[in-house]
Recover the amino acids of this structure.
């Protein structure tokens, strides 16, 4: 997170209804200057609509958009200092790389020398120096997308909106481009609002992630906050592999709640919304759940039967059935492992601080 916390973009009470469909259902958001903020969420949750409202391509049904303190809610897209990069490169096919990047500056009537200087800086930034004369059809997907990004960045927007910019690239290229894009963003200090479906991309690139569902923010947090301290079952299960274990709160004492999980007494850190007797969900990441054939000397454990075990190279995933029938999933390194025996009794244990009690907001809950 950048040290300077100047608010660049502010959304207040943003709503958008298409006919009867509410795509955005009341969003409040402050984005800081220099921040990399990601909108993450399932298909149709309102990410693109939110981005299009910020870009001025869509008018909100209610609410306001402020950029640098100025109300831009009704300002035309080209008059906002905001640029957008879409998934489908959208380069001019009849212009070479140089002209594509120079296009916006040319349209603004910038002097030739200035255009040349800025385009060269951009070519260097996106590592395409020497490709000036190539036509878009002579570039790979990754190179085309880098030209598209350069074309937006050359105009020095205050804010760059990126809608699944790496979505069309294969996995390896995508991972490389993620690092490049992050480096560019940090070097230029431009604020990015980024859309992705890819949770790993969101976790590795963002300063903060806004997790969306049905037009609303479910949780707005740092990647670590979202992964380690999800507030709801939806947030816990959308990112990473997690167990959502049904438990009953037996007693609350000081900062601890004693849970009953399948007949085992298990302590957990308390949350202020819990009342004794309540049925709860404990979110426990699969890689934080450890297995042992012997009894364990730790506070948090349950016993069950190993019902499935899959070797997958560096990791093994295991499924354990506990006495009330719930299935727990564990993932562990295979380094130095003892070959597990299906059907055998295993102790599943974890450190108290990795289990998080979450609200049950699953479908139908
Ligand atoms: P995806 O990840 O699939 O791109 P998204 O999160 O970006 O999805 P949006 O494109 O913002 O979602 O769409 C949100 C909801 O609004 C969807 O139900 C969609 O069908 C609806 N919607 C979006 N644009 C329009 C439109 N122009 N007319 C009618 N409905 C629309």
């Amino acid at each position: 997170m950048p040290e300077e916390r100047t608010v660049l973009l502010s959304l207040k009470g943003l709503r958008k209804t298409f006919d009867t469909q509410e795509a955005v259902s009341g969003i409040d958001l402050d984005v800081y200057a220099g921040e990399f903020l990601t909108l993450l969420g399932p298909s149709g949750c309102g990410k693109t609509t939110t981005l299009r409202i910020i870009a001025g391509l869509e008018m909100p049904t209610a609410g306001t958009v402020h950029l640098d303190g100025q109300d831009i809610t009704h300002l035309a897209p080209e008059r906002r200092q905001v640029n957008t990069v879409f998934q489908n490169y959208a380069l001019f096919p009849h212009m070479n790389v140089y002209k594509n990047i120079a296009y916006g500056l040319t349209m603004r009537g910038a002097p030739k020398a200035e255009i040349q200087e800025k385009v060269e800086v951009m070519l260097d930034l996106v590592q395409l120096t020497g490709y000036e004369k190539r036509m878009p059809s002579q570039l790979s997907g990754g190179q085309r997308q880098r030209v598209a990004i350069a074309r937006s960045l050359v105009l020095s927007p205050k804010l760059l909106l990126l809608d699944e910019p790496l979505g069309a690239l294969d996995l390896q290229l995508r991972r490389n481009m993620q690092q490049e894009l992050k480096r560019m963003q940090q070097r230029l200090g431009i604020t990015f609002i980024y859309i992705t479906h890819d949770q790993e991309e969101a976790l590795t690139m963002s300063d903060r992630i806004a997790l969306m569902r049905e037009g609303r923010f479910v949780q707005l947090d740092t990647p670590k906050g979202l992964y380690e301290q999800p507030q709801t079952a939806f947030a816990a299960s959308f990112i990473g592999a997690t167990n959502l274990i049904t438990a009953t709160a037996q007693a609350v004492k000081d900062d601890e709640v004693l849970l009953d999980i399948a007949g085992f007494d298990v302590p957990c850190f308390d949350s202020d919304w819990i009342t004794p007797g309540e049925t709860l969900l404990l979110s426990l990441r699969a890689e934080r759940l450890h297995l042992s054939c012997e009894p364990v000397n730790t506070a948090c454990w349950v016993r069950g039967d190993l019902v499935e075990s899959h070797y997958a190279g560096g990791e093994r995933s295991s499924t354990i059935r506990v006495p009330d029938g719930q299935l727990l999933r564990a993932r562990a390194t295979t380094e130095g492992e003892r070959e597990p025996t299906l059907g055998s009794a295993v102790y599943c244990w974890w450190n108290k601080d990795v289990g998080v009690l979450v609200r049950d907001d699953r479908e139908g809950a």
Summary: Residues 18, 21, 23, 41, 43-49, 197 surround adenosine-5'-triphosphate (CB under 6 Å). The first strand starts at residue 7 and ends at 18. The helical segments are 47-55, 97-107, 112-125, 141-153, 171-188, 199-205, 223-228, 233-238. The longest helix spans residues 171-188.
